[in-house]
Amino acid sequence: MLDPHADGEFETRYEWMRPGQLRDRRDQCPLILFPLAPLEYHGPHMPLGTDPISATYVAHACCKRLRRGVVRPTLFLGTERERDPDTLVSLGFQPGEYIVGMDFPSRQWNSHYISEEVFALVVAAEVRCLINQGYQYVYIVNGHGAVNHNAVLRRLCIELSHTTPALVDYSVSFPDEALAAGAIGHADLMEASLLMYYNEASVDVATLPPRDVTLRYPEFSIVDGPGFTPASKPAREVPRDSDPRYASAEAGRGYFEKAVADVCDKIATFLSESR
After folding, report:
1. By Cβ atoms counted within 10 A, which residue in 24, 125, 135, 260 is the most buried?
2. What does the alpha-carbon distance between residue 153 and residue 159 come to, in Å, rounded to a whole number?
3. Closest listed residue to residue 34, CA positions, set 10, 16, 14
4. CA 97, CA 144: separation in Å to the nearest integer?
5. Are the beta carbons of 155 and 147 closer than 8 angstroms?
6. What does the pLDDT read at residue 1?
C-alpha cells in the first residue's frame, strides 16, 4: 500500500502540525492545498472513496515534491446534477429518465452527492477559514470530474480571488492528457489502475463479468471519457483501452506520476501570480 506520508522529514498533514509549525511553514510559503471530492459509486469493483482518495494522494505528493505549503484534511464532499437527455441517450438510457450523476438504476450503493448550493457554501466557508489563518494561496485539488461540480469550484475561485486578500485556484487530480479528451472516464482502467497503485486490495475486478463479456455502461456505471459525449458511442459499451479488467498497479503508477507532475506545474504557475 502506498504511503502518502512516507517522507517523515517534511510533514504535509495540516492536522498533525502544531500552531508554531504551521506558522513557520506558512511564513516560508503561504500556500495550502485543499483536496476534495464526494463519496461516489464506482461500480462493484472499486471503493466509494475513489475520487477523494486520488485527490488526497496527489495533493500530498505535490506538497512533498514542491517542498512548500501544507495539505488541509480532505473534504469528502461534492455535487452532481441530473443527466441531460442527450447524455442519457449516449449512456444507453431513455431521454426522459431521471438519473443523477453515476447513480444508475443498476447501482449497488448510493453516492453521497449534495446540492450545488450546499456544496458552494461549505467550500467557500472552509476556504475563508484558511484565508483567515493567513494563507495567501489556496489551491483546491479536486478529484471529481462532474461538470456542475467543477463549475461551482471555478466560480468560487474567481469570486474569492477578487473579494479576499488571497488567490484561490483549483485543478482536477488527473493527468492533463486525460483532461484533453474532453471528459474523464469513470470507474475505468485509469481509475482502477490508480486505486490499485495506492492499495491493490482496494480493487476487485472479480466482481465484474469475465473479460470476454462486454461491459455496457448502464449495467456497471463504468464509462470511458468519450461515453459522456452525446451520441459518441452508439454501442454504449466500454472499449478495451478503458476496460478496468485490464487495470494494473504498474499502469496506475504511470498515471499517478503524470498527474502529480501536471498538478505541480499548475501550482508552481499559481504561486508565481500576484495580485
Report:
1. 135
2. 10
3. 14
4. 23
5. no
6. 76
> Who contacts 225 (Cβ-Cβ below 8 Å, separation ≥6)?
178, 181, 182, 183, 184, 185, 188, 242
Report all structural domains of the chain as residue ranges with CATH numbers, in order of start: 14-182+257-271 (3.40.50.10310)
pLDDT at residue 224 in the model: 93
Give the Cα separation of 95 and 107 in Å (integer): 19
The β-bridge partners of 171 are: 141
Judged on CB neighbours under 10 Å (0-12, 13-18, 19+), 266 is middle
Asked if 195 and 33 touch (Cβ cutoff 8 Å), the reply is no
Q: Which residues contact 87 (CB under 8 A, 6 or more apart)?
A: 228, 230
99 and 105 Cβ atoms separated by less than 8 Å: yes
Which residues are registered as beta bridge partners of 70? 32
Using DSSP's 3-state secondary structure scheme, residue 48 falls into coil
pLDDT along the chain (275 residues), means of 10: 72 98 98 99 99 99 98 99 94 96 98 99 99 99 96 99 98 90 86 98 98 97 89 80 98 98 98 82
- pLDDT for 52: 99
In this structure, which amino acid lies at residue 50? T
The answer to whether residues 55 and 141 touch, using CB atoms and an 8 Å cutoff, is yes
The three-state secondary structure class of 7 is coil
Cα–Cα distance between 184 and 175 in angstroms, integer?
10
From residue 220, how far is each of 43, 204, 267 by CA, in Å?
Answer: 5, 13, 35
Query: What tens digit of pLDDT does each residue of 129-182 get?
Result: 999 999 999 999 999 999 999 999 999 999 999 999 999 999 999 999 888 766
DSSP 152: H
Q: What is the pLDDT of residue 273?
A: 83
The predicted structure's pLDDT at residue 140:
99
